[in-house]
Known about the structure:
Helix content is 31%, strand content 28%. By secondary structure, the protein is α+β, with helices and mostly antiparallel strands. The protein folds into six domains: 5-63, Arc Repressor Mutant, subunit A (Orthogonal Bundle), CATH 1.10.10; 70-131, CATH 2.40.50.140; 136-198, CATH 2.40.50.640; 222-393 and 433-449, no CATH class; 458-605, no CATH class; 622-703, CATH 2.40.50.140. The protein has a seven-stranded mixed sheet with strand order 14-21-20-17-16-15-22. The chain is globular and about 75 Å long. 37% of the residues are buried.
Amino acid sequence: xxxxxxxxxxxxxxMRAKPGHRFSLRxxxxxxxxxxxxxxxxxxxxxxxxxxxxxxxxNHYTLAKAASLVSGVVQxxxxxxxxxxxxxxxxxxxxLSRREMxxxxxxxxxxxxxxxxxxxxxxxxxVEVLERGQRRLVGVVQTDGDRTVVVPMDPRVAPAIPLxxxxxxxxxxxxxxxxxxxxxxxxxxxxxxxQVLGAPxxxxxQARAVIFRYGWPEDFSDEAxxxxxxxxxxxxxxxxxxxxxxxxxxTFTVDGETARDFDDAVGMxxxxxxxxxxxxxxxxxAHYVPRDSxxxxxxxxxxTSVYFPDRALPMLxxxxxxxxxxxxxxxxxxTRTALLEIDRRxxxxxxxxxxxxxxxxxxxxxxxxxxxxxxxDAAAIAKHPELMDSLRAMEELTRLLMDRRRARxxxxxxxxxxxxxxxxxxxxxxxxxxxxxxxxxxxxEFMIAANEAVxxxxxxxxxxxxxRVHEGPDEDTLDAIGPFLSTLGYRLHRSEEKVSSRxxxxxxxxxxxxxxxxxxxxxxxxxxxxxxxxxxxxxxxGLASDxxxxxxSPIRRYPDLMVHRLLDQAMAGPKLDSGTRExxxxxxxxxxxxxxxxxxxAMEAEREIVDLKKAQFMTDKIxxxxxxxxxxxxxxxxxxxxxxxFVEGLVSLRSLEDDYYRYYDTAHLIKGQNxxxxxxxxxxxxxxxxxVKLFQGEIDFELARP
Length: 706
């Protein structure tokens, strides 16, 4: 650990002597010698990470429990009130009145003091804003009397914010603004105009609005571009410097049609015993991006690439991401290879990880491989006849690996992803469910196997690492979904209030091909916690894996690049001394937290763009009727996914005028109080498109027929 256990106990003892006191770092350090100053800071960072101590503004600290304070993130509501979702697990949400919400905004991280109960909820008083969640906003300009205001895209943020602008933009235009003042008890918030983006129905405006709001950098510094440019056109050196030459091995990439970078390639050989030698070769990004270089600093800040339907915001400049690091066919590339020797039953017998050089033979797409292996398409095979032996062996191995993963309890959700088809003007012309073939499965299985192999390799050496971890669902979640599963004839067998991944997989297999499959897959997936990066290995529940990490995508994910560097350190030896290990532990812990936060932001931005594209697609379909399936229930209505397009919209309870309807959360049921009509997840319905909120990415339906 970064600070010794004894030192943490001494810091806690000092703080417990004055419960509720706001300690400065200088006050805490006074009780220790000069030699311990850095160690005290490390110990405090660990205590903050453990949620035992709360870091306040201006580098002050206080005990969370002693102060009777709760830290958490504000979740605003369009009606003006809000809640604080506590950082500490197991605590209930804390209600914030409209008066309290005047001082905070949706997304702020705050300290609250729970004061009393209100309608069963804890009501809180905001003691301090720890971190502002809204610094840059995008909204539509409107006039309010003699004032110009901006109405945020996200209605949870605020109904309207006064806008300071030398020449106010025209009402109806989309504007990017920066907060200059946050609201207080008596003063309203205020924002400054940064730029006018344009009309809300322009797809380019939509994309730029999301990029601005999430603060995602589009450009690289001159120094980073210079470093990247110095590698452009570089070839493989004549002396391989200990790298293994795999250019004689048949290796190729398999990606989607619109893939922009290629960081993994696969190759296969049969072994003498009838097994398989699987080669997973990954772009050696670490060779071109030294730690703490300008390239590295910017990649670490981004944390990940972001992918929109019409563009990518890469983690690394194009000279690397789509240039020298991309495993394009017919050119030599520096790589890291995980060689897995696997027997005829799919068990990994031996793992070897080494630096290498490859030359990819082909850039295949999932569609092409599907045609070759599933459809046996003669034209597709004729393009790459030399790859068929490898592909057939890979298909065999894929099915073996899939069976073994399922047997150990790895969860396999059958929920399609959205495929957005754009026209020449970047307007969506179709929204459909992406098809998954054996080609998708193949690459997924091989990447999982390689990631586990590297995790096991570093774990065996007891070398510090950044793991990809996933915790199982908590007790409350299981209690909530149990009754609904029972109504469909399914039951979760739990041991000591927990459920195994194998048990969840049993339910997924049992509903395969049945009418309720889509609903059950969605419900069980929502019951899962989000995977994240962590220095500590707690395993991966969803994959039923004891040790898992990300090694296979260093072009687009920073944790993968970190793992490549850690492999170098582990292989170089000698063992780390205690001081070096502590420094590395502290760095990895902080970097893992940052990468997890950036990943969540990227996912939110990508999801928001998809919702905007779906709304844009539906704007000319108002008044049309379509069949669909109820996919989710809430206390304000239910969501319906259309059969024809992969689009979801809301049927508000207010639109159901034949009765007064209530939502029963434990039964997952919406039911009329007078006539008994009910709605459940999975019910087929016919709806009419009545409204599209273009810039909110929201679609409203009404029931078309009783």
